[in-house]
Amino acid sequence: MSVIRTENLTYTYSIGTPFEKTAVNNVNLEIEEGELAGIIGHTGSGKSTLIQHFNGLIKPTSGKIYIDGQDIWGKDVKIRDIRFKVGLVFQYPEYQIFEETVYKDIAFGPKNMGLPEEEIDRRIKEIAELVGLHKENLYKSPFELSGGQKRRVAIAGVMAMEPKVLILDEPTAGLDPKGRDKILGQIKDYHRHKKSTVLLVSHSMEDMAKFADKILVMNKAEVFCYDDTPKVFARSEELEQIGLAVPQITRVFNRLKQSGIDIRTDVYTVEFARKTILEYLEKRGGKNA
Amino acid sequence: MLKDITIGQYFPGNSAVHRLDPRFKIIITGVFIGMLFSADGFLGLAVGAVFLLISFLLSQIPLKLMIKSLKPIVPIILFTSVLNIFFLDGVPLLRLGFIKITDEGLRTSAFMIIRIIALIMGSSLLTYTTSPIILTDAIERLLSPLKKIKLPVHELAMMMTIALRFIPTLIEETDKIMSAQKARGADMETGSLVQRAKALTPILIPLFVSAFRRAEELATAMECRCYRGGDGRTRLRQLHSTGADFFALGLSILFLDAVLLLNCLIG
After folding, report:
1. Distance (Å, rounded) from C-alpha A133 to C-alpha A141?
2. Inter-residue contact A233 to A268 (CB < 8 Å)
């Protein structure tokens, strides 16, 4: 069963004023349980607005959202319960940290859920290890930590709620490449470990290529496509037309193809590119011999 | 919801009133307030009202907006008029037990209501047609003679400018932090007063932290660009007064004179 399903979801900002703008237009989506999906799109394409619908922070202008088959704006649904089911990590989440210690800050979400102390303690220790926070750091003030560490504390704060769906909005914004890979790796570990659904918003095609099994492309408030990563990148020309840069390595292969070399173009990671080139050379070398 | 708050209710436009030199606009508003308070009778108020009507028509501000500006003062208007109607002595027009309504009471309360409404509309017209930043700029210029008595006029104006500049930023920030804490299950809508006050901690602390961070960044950025206070500083926006400004000022003084003359003639 799909864990998130939307039906003609539409959201319009500032209705009835000159600033009226449709941010999400007639979106029909089904996201299966356990998926590791990326959401990509231009600034202003509606991706941030879309994900805020999934945990009920924004009420749609029209259309329906089903989480686990349940209409979240239905009569008997407590929206707070939906927020525990669908965890949302905002952009620059380190700015929401407020507690005296890292431990207490991570505990904020689980405490709001009303979990017993021992369970909270277990979760914090488990998640801290998963995101690479040292034990001695747990009792420090979060404001003493480095930027990257603060970010991991904030992400851990949502992960500790163990939501069925974890959504992260640009979790790597403003980090150096090393920090980026580290956080993406940890999110992937979390996905493997917890078997939960993870959605990741990003505008870096490189990150997406490395990270996501499926990609949702948003364009001008509408869903452009939602498909397996290789299939999405195979449409690289269309992607470039709507102004999204495909990974550099994909561009290289497109150029190779254009210059008359018979090679596949659905290549989007360096690792796979290496394999493809070696295969190609072997094939050609075989012919020559 | 926080986004709906508008502060510094500037309504952009390019009317004759918009284009007036802000310094003159402030002085003219002062003269207009002078008209309202020196008027002894309804005739004097009427002169002030005509002046307001002319400026309003010239400004091309929608009437709806002007009426909206009166909303917050409705309680004050009601309160003063009720007090005036019931507690002023004069010829009783109506008696209901110990309550009596006098002609003097009715007259005074009508006079007060008109005066307050005109006062608010006139000053709203100033803020509707002048952006807050330009307004502080003009205030700085008007107050600059006070530098002689060591009043830090430039610093005060700069503080006002920065405060105005960061209000929308902080509102946006508060919105974001609230959403983030709600996503972690923070409950701000239910519970007792104490519980709700406590629920504000997760919002206020990050907000303060970010305000300090922004202040520090701003200070560094200003220092990097060699900001060192007002002495010898030139301006991006030079204020130029034109014939139209002097004409408008002259007109307002003429109206004030008319009010004073009416007072003498009638009184």
Report:
1. 13
2. yes
The two structure tokens encoding residue B237: 């926006």
Closest Cα to residue A166, out of A124, A206, A195, A131? A195
Closest residue by Cα to residue A40 from A191, A189, A247: A247
Report which residue type is found at B97: G
Residues contacting B50, CB < 8 A, separation 6+: B255
Phi/psi for A31 (5° steps) reads -115, 125
CA distance B265 to B267: 6
Residues A218, A199: contact at Cβ < 8 Å? no
Angstroms from A238 CA to nearest CA on chain B: 34
Spatial CA neighbour of A224 closest among A242, A208, A236: A242
Quickly count: other Cβ atoms within 10 Å of residue B172's Cβ: 12
The H helix count followed by the E strand count for chain B is 11, 2
Q: What is the ipTM of this complex?
A: 0.85
| Buried residues in A224-247 as b, exposed as e (16+ CB within 10 A) | bebeebeebbbbbeebeeeebebb
Is residue A86 within 8 A of residue A169, CB to CB? The reply is: no
Beta carbons of B209 and A84 less than 8 Å apart = no
Looking at beta carbons, which residues of chain A come within 8 Å of B170? none
CB contact under 8 A, A83 and B185: yes
CA A167, CA A38: separation in Å to the nearest integer? Answer: 10
B3: closest chain A residue by CA:
A14
Q: Walk along chain B (267 residues) and give the pLDDT tens digit of each residue.
A: 444 444 456 788 888 899 999 999 999 999 999 999 998 888 899 999 999 999 999 998 888 888 887 888 888 888 888 888 877 777 777 777 777 778 888 888 889 899 999 998 998 899 889 888 888 889 888 988 888 898 888 888 888 888 888 888 888 899 999 999 999 988 877 778 888 888 888 999 999 999 999 999 999 999 999 888 877 788 777 888 889 999 999 999 999 999 999 888 876
Chain A residues whose C-beta is within 8 A of a chain B C-beta are 52, 55, 57, 80, 83-84, 87-90, 93, 95-98, 108-109, 112-113, 143, 157-158, 161
Checking phi first, is residue B229 left (phi over 0); if not, alpha (psi -120 to 50) or beta? Answer: left
| Closest to B27 (Cα-Cα) out of B128, B185, B135 | B135
CA nearest to B255, candidates B55, B71, B120, B1: B55
